């Protein structure tokens, strides 16, 4: 009986570690784990479709072919660390819709296409440390809405703008230490985030050891040790102020707009005020950039003074415009204007003498009396 049980156990082990789970005999499978570690591979092999974990560590893989993971819809963890990958092309991981952990550390990655991680909507951890990444496109992580941990330690990154991680609403940890960060105004956001009083401190405190590489005066100094003014940011400046608007009573219920453009570094936030009060009402439509405000179906209560405020941590700038509603209708104004023109056309200036012009000259009036005539 014992011998029979031993035979059954051996058969079970051989089935679990079958060499027929991949198109490469150097890979082995154990239940839902496909392992090709240290197999001397230079390409990603095909494996069983029910795999949950795919381990490709310590091989010689240089490229990820498009569609190679397309059938691995159940995969949760992918280990590609310690290979020779130099570039991640667009849609490199297409098919891995359920992937949660992606290990790419200790490769030679220099370039990452903005759409490389496009379909990884369930990814929670991305390991990119110890590569040769110099630059990241601002949309690189746009679709990683569930990402919690982003590790970029030990790369060659010089600029890391806040826009890179704004889409990462679930981010809990960011590692940027041991890079070549240029501590100009682009890095001010991180300095602010790692201050203990910051509401973002719990997310970015892991980057508290990040240090400057340039400028030379800050070489190897921790970003957290710098002062606010060290980042050489530029205070806001309004370059296009809103224009005054006048409409007649006939134009009530129409659309009125004010535009205000500002520059600064970092880019300032624009806020709108009416007669000293911040505008939030649904009646006012403000563009995403904040530079354009639209007033729908205007009425007499909308008249007043409108101000745009351009704000940043480094100062503010203001500009204003008046919105007036003229009581006279456009028809009345046009009539007066036409009447005035006709009146002026009845006069001719001849040698400092105003001559009333009609079919027959009836009067000659000195120039100094002209304005009296006009008033009358």
TrEMBL record:
<dbReference type="InterPro" id="IPR003599">
    <property type="entry name" value="Ig_sub"/>
</dbReference>
<dbReference type="InterPro" id="IPR032675">
    <property type="entry name" value="LRR_dom_sf"/>
</dbReference>
<keyword id="KW-0677">Repeat</keyword>
<keyword id="KW-0393">Immunoglobulin domain</keyword>
<keyword id="KW-0675">Receptor</keyword>
<dbReference type="InterPro" id="IPR001611">
    <property type="entry name" value="Leu-rich_rpt"/>
</dbReference>
<comment type="similarity">
    <text>Belongs to the G-protein coupled receptor 2 family. Adhesion G-protein coupled receptor (ADGR) subfamily.</text>
</comment>
<dbReference type="InterPro" id="IPR036179">
    <property type="entry name" value="Ig-like_dom_sf"/>
</dbReference>
<dbReference type="InterPro" id="IPR013098">
    <property type="entry name" value="Ig_I-set"/>
</dbReference>
<dbReference type="InterPro" id="IPR003598">
    <property type="entry name" value="Ig_sub2"/>
</dbReference>
<dbReference type="GO" id="GO:0007166">
    <property type="term" value="P:cell surface receptor signaling pathway"/>
</dbReference>
<dbReference type="InterPro" id="IPR051963">
    <property type="entry name" value="Adhesion_GPCR_A"/>
</dbReference>
<keyword id="KW-0433">Leucine-rich repeat</keyword>
<protein>
    <submittedName>
        <fullName>Peroxidasin-like protein</fullName>
    </submittedName>
</protein>
<keyword id="KW-0732">Signal</keyword>
<dbReference type="InterPro" id="IPR003591">
    <property type="entry name" value="Leu-rich_rpt_typical-subtyp"/>
</dbReference>
<keyword id="KW-1015">Disulfide bond</keyword>
<feature type="domain" description="Ig-like">
    <location>
        <begin position="236"/>
        <end position="324"/>
    </location>
</feature>
<feature type="signal peptide">
    <location>
        <begin position="1"/>
        <end position="15"/>
    </location>
</feature>
<dbReference type="InterPro" id="IPR007110">
    <property type="entry name" value="Ig-like_dom"/>
</dbReference>
<dbReference type="Pfam" id="PF13855">
    <property type="entry name" value="LRR_8"/>
</dbReference>
<dbReference type="Pfam" id="PF07679">
    <property type="entry name" value="I-set"/>
</dbReference>
<dbReference type="GO" id="GO:0005886">
    <property type="term" value="C:plasma membrane"/>
</dbReference>
<dbReference type="InterPro" id="IPR013783">
    <property type="entry name" value="Ig-like_fold"/>
</dbReference>
């Amino acid at each position: 009986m014992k011998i029979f049980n031993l035979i059954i156990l051996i058969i079970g082990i051989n089935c679990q570690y079958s060499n027929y789970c991949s198109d490469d005999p150097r890979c082995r499978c154990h239940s839902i784990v496909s392992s090709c570690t240290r197999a001397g591979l230079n390409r990603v092999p095909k494996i069983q479709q029910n795999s949950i974990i795919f381990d490709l560590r310590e091989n010689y893989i240089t490229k990820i072919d498009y569609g190679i993971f397309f059938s691995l819809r159940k995969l949760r963890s992918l280990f590609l660390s310690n290979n020779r990958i130099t570039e991640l092309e667009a849609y490199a991981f297409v098919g891995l819709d359920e992937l949660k952990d992606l290990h790419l550390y200790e490769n030679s990655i220099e370039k990452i296409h903005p759409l490389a991680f496009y379909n990884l909507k369930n990814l929670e951890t991305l390991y990119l440390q110890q590569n040769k990444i110099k630059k990241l496109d601002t949309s690189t992580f746009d679709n990683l809405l569930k990402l919690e941990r982003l590790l970029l330690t030990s790369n060659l990154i010089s600029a890391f703008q806040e826009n890179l991680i704004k889409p990462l609403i679930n981010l809990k940890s960011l590692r940027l230490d041991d890079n070549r960060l240029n501590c100009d105004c682009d890095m001010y956001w991180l300095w602010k985030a790692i201050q203990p009083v910051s509401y973002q401190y719990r997310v970015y405190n892991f980057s508290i050891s990040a240090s400057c590489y340039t400028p030379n005066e800050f070489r190897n100094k921790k970003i957290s040790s710098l002062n606010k003014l060290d980042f050489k940011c530029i205070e806001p400046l309004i370059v296009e102020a809103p224009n005054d608007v006048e409409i007649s009573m006939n134009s009530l219920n129409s659309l009125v707009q004010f535009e205000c453009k500002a520059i600064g570094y970092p880019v300032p936030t624009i806020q709108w005020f009416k007669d000293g009060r911040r505008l939030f009402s649904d009646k006012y439509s403000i563009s995403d950039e904040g530079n354009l405000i639209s007033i729908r179906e205007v009425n007499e209560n909308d008249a007043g003074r409108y101000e745009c405020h351009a704000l940043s941590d480094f100062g503010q700038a203001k500009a204003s415009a008046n919105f007036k509603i003229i009581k006279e209708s456009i028809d009345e104004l046009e009539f007066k204007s036409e009447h005035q023109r006709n009146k002026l056309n009845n006069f001719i200036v001849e040698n400092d003498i105003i001559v009333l012009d009609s079919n027959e000259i009836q009067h000659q009036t000195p120039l100094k009396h002209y304005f009296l005539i006009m008033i009358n």
